[in-house]
Each structure stands twice: as structure tokens, then as C-alpha cells.
Amino acid sequence: MQTDKQMKFINFFIITGKTITLFAWLIMAYNLVQPFEGT
Hints:
By secondary structure, the protein is mainly alpha-helical. Helix content is 77%, strand content 0%.
């Protein structure tokens, strides 16, 4: 059995991981459209 505290921590960890992954995908997509170096 998992306590409520552990469940909240796990949910927070999962949400944080999803956010970081989504942010990384957005940066990659932006780099494809408009690269940092060059014009």
C-alpha cells in the first residue's frame, strides 16, 4: 500500500517529467523552423 504522500510525490514527478519532455519537443520543433545560428 502506498500512502497519500507517496502518491502525490509520484504524480508530481510524472507531471514534471511530462512537462520537461514537452518543453524539449517544443525547443526541437522551434529549432527545426528557426535555427539559432544563421539567418
